[in-house]
From TrEMBL:
It comes from the Bacteria. Residues 1-14 have a biased composition (Polar residues). This is Cytochrome bc1 complex Rieske iron-sulfur subunit. Residues 234-325 form the Rieske domain. Its cofactor is [2Fe-2S] cluster. Iron-sulfur subunit of the cytochrome bc1 complex, an essential component of the respiratory electron transport chain required for ATP synthesis. The bc1 complex catalyzes the oxidation of menaquinol and the reduction of cytochrome c in the respiratory chain. The bc1 complex operates through a Q-cycle mechanism that couples electron transfer to generation of the proton gradient that drives ATP synthesis. Pfam families: QcrA_N, Rieske. Residues 1-38 are annotated as: Disordered. Belongs to the Rieske iron-sulfur protein family. One of its GO terms (molecular function) is arsenate reductase (azurin) activity. It comes from Oerskovia enterophila. The keyword Amino-acid biosynthesis does not apply.
Length: 343
């Protein structure tokens, strides 16, 4: 039987076409265990309280971790802090969500009601009935006569916003010294090293078309310092080697590359994401966050996307042993533009 024939049969009754379907009405109400057994209702109430308590503990744990964890900028320390704070937030949100669902399914009224459509502005009598219905609904939820449950939900909902507000307030009061972006760890004659191994790179190891993720070759004590992560984040570089005939270099930058090897900051000039997707055939460098695209063969100029200026170039050369080294720091601040700059 076709769909059209099924539809025709459904709209006919006794050989006559129907202009509307018969209202099947509301199915018979099925009572829940908590409706029939006071002990079951009490158990459900305690389960909801426990879930709200988990949320309270999660929020308090997150706040304690945020303020009490020792400052450790090593990768392991950052991962551990993020894990503990993230777990606190997870339990805070999960506790509230599960408690609300369990409360609604086991304790709140589950009777279905039908409201006929009416004008948008109800009469005063209907509005009074609506207020009465809300009052009865609040009574149905049992929160007024369940003191422990009321205390748990109020405490959980009151504490949870702190898990979001406290880190935001702490961030507002953080370090706003943007002048630090004017300089990085790069210094004259500092070797270019592979990220993350830290092995210095020789020019002969860089073949045409290859791309290297580069960091400064700094002493071991610098790598073990608390400032290393933030300083490394500013100094990261992507280095590629092109056929020298493909390079379009400004007259004042012709000595910034070495035999087709060029190095540019990996920090996108849009919002600071790491630019690391290199397309060998087009010489294009793509930022994965917002698709800003830079032409490595032409001074890393923007060819697509929201970025407004080229990637800063790191002037490089080689030392007496054939290792690639920086001629100087970047000649302009790395990363996104900010209010103290013209662009």
């Amino acid at each position: 039987m076709s769909d059209n024939q099924n539809s025709t049969d459904l709209t006919k009754q006794g050989g006559q076409e129907l202009d509307r379907f018969q209202d099947p009405g509301i199915p018979a109400h099925k009572s829940r265990m908590a409706d029939r057994d006071p002990q079951a209702a009490k158990r459900a109430e305690m389960q909801v309280v426990i879930l709200f308590t988990i949320s309270i503990i999660g929020t308090i744990g997150m706040l304690v971790a945020f303020f009490a964890l020792p400052e450790d900028t090593s990768i392991a320390g950052i991962r551990m802090a993020n894990l503990i704070i993230g777990l606190g937030l997870a339990f805070a949100l999960l506790g509230i969500g599960l408690a609300a669902v369990h409360w609604a399914k086991t304790l709140m009224s589950d009777h279905e009601h039908v409201d006929e459509r009416h004008a948008q502005r109800s009469s005063d009598a209907v509005r009074a009935e609506a207020v009465q219905a809300l009052t009865e609904g609040a009574e149905d939820s049992g929160i007024a006569r369940r003191g422990v449950l009321k205390g748990a939900v109020v405490t959980a909902l009151a504490l949870f916003p702190l898990a979001i507000a406290v880190p935001l307030v702490a961030e507002v009061g953080g370090d706003w010294n943007v002048s630090k972006f004017r300089h990085t760890l790069w210094k004259p004659k500092m070797r270019l090293a592979l990220d993350p191994s830290g092995r210095p790179i020789k020019a002969e190891d860089v073949t045409i078309g290859s791309a290297f993720h580069v960091i400064p070759d700094v002493p071991e004590e610098v790598r073990n310092s608390h400032e290393w992560i933030s300083e490394k984040a500013k100094a990261i570089v992507l280095m590629v080697r092109l056929d020298p005939r493909d390079l379009k270099e400004a007259p004042d930058r012709k000595d910034w590359s070495y035999d087709g090897i060029v190095a540019y900051s990996k920090v996108c000039t849009h919002v600071g994401c790491p630019v690391a997707l290199y397309e060998q055939q087009t010489h294009h460098l793509l930022c994965p966050c917002h698709q800003s695209t830079f032409d490595v063969a032409d001074g890393a100029k923007v060819v697509f996307g929201p970025a407004k200026r080229p990637l800063p170039q790191l002037p490089i050369t080689v030392d007496d042993e054939g290792y690639l080294v920086a001629q100087s720091d970047f000649h302009e601040p790395v990363g996104p533009s900010y209010w103290e700059r013209l662009k």
